[in-house]
Amino acid sequence: MSTNDAKVAPEALISKFEVIRLLKQDQSGRRIAILGTIDNQQGILIAERAAFATESPEALQAFHTAITDVNNLGDNDIYRWYLASSHSVPGSQQPPDLKLNLIWPCTESHIKKYSEQIVRMVTETPEIYRDSIRPYMSAKREEGRLNWVFNILEGRTEQEDVILRDKGHDGAEEGGFLVLPDLNWDRKTMGSLHLLALVMRRDIWSLRDLKKKHIPWLKYLRERLLEETVRVYPQLETDQLKLYVHYQPTYYHFHVHIVNVMLEAGATQATGKAFGLENIISQLETLDGDEEAGMADVSLTYFLGEASELWSNVFGPLKRGEKPLPN
């Protein structure tokens, strides 16, 4: 850049920037690097979306008022997801710049999950799992929290989104599974690809239910998820994908996340939340014991928010030397 260019107003330089091509876009879509020129000299323009204004109720209301061009991507039970635009001019062709998820009506548990809170690392022993966590899981399943999952598995909703149905490695119904886009993916950006595999069987609530006898099924599941993902999305190769499960999961029905390895790892992919499917299979293979030995027999370390019921009812009391509260 010449000395004269350096003295011009900053906004003038931006207006003189001539775009050549995109260099990089982060996988959340919030930051891009563009190669271009100013007066025939190459430059890189890095653009990042400003943080949402949250300093007052009025700022939040202004954000909501600015939402336009809302397009429904899908809905199931209390969950709905959309693409929308902010500050668009009526009649313009501005692409959507907002991905919206709506949970309505939400529960107190949803409110706690999405609230700012201190996070703690906890270690769940087989005894804690047996005495406190398993009963908690059972209580949550009985509250109807899985209605949206069963709606998909039983063919009542989101069937147009299903990209794979598989009957399993032995053809038995309980070994089957289906795959569809995760509600947090925009369904077009390959760098942020995020799919969800839901298993048909209902006896596996979480990775805790996996046993040595499930190894052949898990290996088949892994192979088919990789094969079919690259078939449907040929822009990708199998070594550009990672498969993981959550613990604690958001809901207690076994499911596997399939994501692009380039997807920036937020809290949901962090250590203490995401457990790689390959590592789970390897751990099962090396466990002592017969075919019934499994993940319920090991200690697991993960993180919890202090607002969660598991912290307030189980791990908080244990830390204080008290007995966990009944579910």
TrEMBL record:
InterPro entries membership: DcpS/DCS2, HIT-like_sf, Scavenger_mRNA_decap_enz_N
Top-rank lineage group of the source organism: Eukaryota
Molecular-function GO term, any one: RNA 7-methylguanosine cap binding
Transmembrane annotation, as ranges: none
One Pfam family cited in the UniProt record for this chain: DcpS
GO biological process, one term: deadenylation-dependent decapping of nuclear-transcribed mRNA
GO cellular component, one term: nucleus
Catalytic residues (positions): H255
Family from the record: Belongs to the HIT family.
Name the UniProt record assigns to this protein: Scavenger mRNA decapping enzyme
